[in-house]
User: What shape does this take?
Amino acid sequence: MTEEETTEGTEEEVEELEPEELVPLEGPLAEEEIDALTAERDKLRDQLLRTAADFDNYRKRIKRDLEEVRRRAQEDAVREILPIVDNLERAVQAADSATDVQAVADGVKMVLRGFADVSERLGLERVDAIGAQFDPNVHDAVQQIESADQPAGTIMAEVVPGYTMRGRLLRAAMVVVARPPAEPEAEPAELEPAELEPAEPETSAEE
Assistant: This one.
């Protein structure tokens, strides 16, 4: 056999193995594989749907739990404040028929002391104001007053108190802040009499 005949035979074998001429598998084995893959796909899809449904239920449950915690916290805070409201109502009723103003004032002070006790239990603290240095994080300046006695930025008065709760600002304190007094305007220097030059007499045209 010559070299040319060998080459031609090899080319014929290669042509017989072209992909277009390959016949797909048929029979029970191929159908079983397709059924197995289909079943695996359906199983994975079912697991995915179950996982998505479980996550959605978990998210809704967490939301309900947070709302319940928030509601109970609000109820606890209101429950602490109710005795203060009761005492204020009693003070108003007593003030209508009271003849001693000092007794009414003492009753209001007692209510304020009760509010201070409740504030401590709730973690509510009043923002330092008068005499403190102005802090834009907790203070709101509503006015500035010139002062030569206090450094600039010192709080001179408190208009509305501010409060923090467990380190978190609830309301900034509205305050009046000191500022340096304005410098007086320089007065024009007065000339000494010796520095004034006498006016020269006018010479008439006839001379």
